Amino acid sequence: MKKILNINIIMALAALGVIGYFMVMYFPLYQFHTLSKQVRYDMELEGGDFNNAFILDGLSLYLDDDNQELHGGELTILGAGSFVDGMEYKLEVNLNDDVVICDYQFDYEPSKQEYQIGIIDDAALPQNVDKATATIYGDFDQVVAKVELGLAKARLLDGYNRNMRMENVTLTSGHIRLGQLITMLDLSGYDSIALEYRYLISDDLDKDDNNSYKVFEKIEGTPEEILDSTGYGTYDFSTDQKLIASRPLSVAVIMKKGDETNVVKIDLD
User: Fold this and answer.
1) Whole-structure pTM over 0.90, yes or no?
2) Where are the alpha helices (DSSP H) in 113-180?
3) Confidence at residue 64, expressed as pLDDT on a 0 to 100 scale
């Protein structure tokens, strides 16, 4: 009886060992197909025209598990009567009434309407955003104009095939965040990898034909540069590119080694 019990224990341990081996071997594959970084939010803040004083456009926020970004957009002064030539003013943008993410100063010039705020690196973004306001202050912190900004949330796009995934690609009417390429394949033998971001020119064209697409952005580098990057930045649509946000999108992954070229298509849905 004791001998049978020992045999059963040995068999059970052997079975656990086999299961553990396969779990270790196949966990990266499971992880690739099931896990991805989560975007908490990606949005644009826009609004203004408070008493015809100013418009703030293209201010964008991004927060995921690893990164936070704030791009400053453009401030346009409309109401010349509210501003004094040569005086210094301050634009302050608040989230949820208490978190200041932008403290931008500018000297007003009657001949200049647009002020580029640029990228703001030291902003601390909250975990959730429910409200945003923009205020322009003059001398002695006197309020010149204040407005509540609209929150235009981005749409998270899924993009994957059996071996590759585009992670954290998000889309608004004003920009697309280009995300990051994730793959289980060993691409180290290639000389370069290029990612072509494209949109389908017409619904009447064949989606499987590369000639049916128009490229609007291209990212290229060595396999290490492409795969080690945590993100490829943001592409802002120009006025005549606004239609891109409403078109079917895809990424062509172009892998080159000498005279050999392999292309893999990833649809973004």
Assistant:
1) no
2) none
3) 83
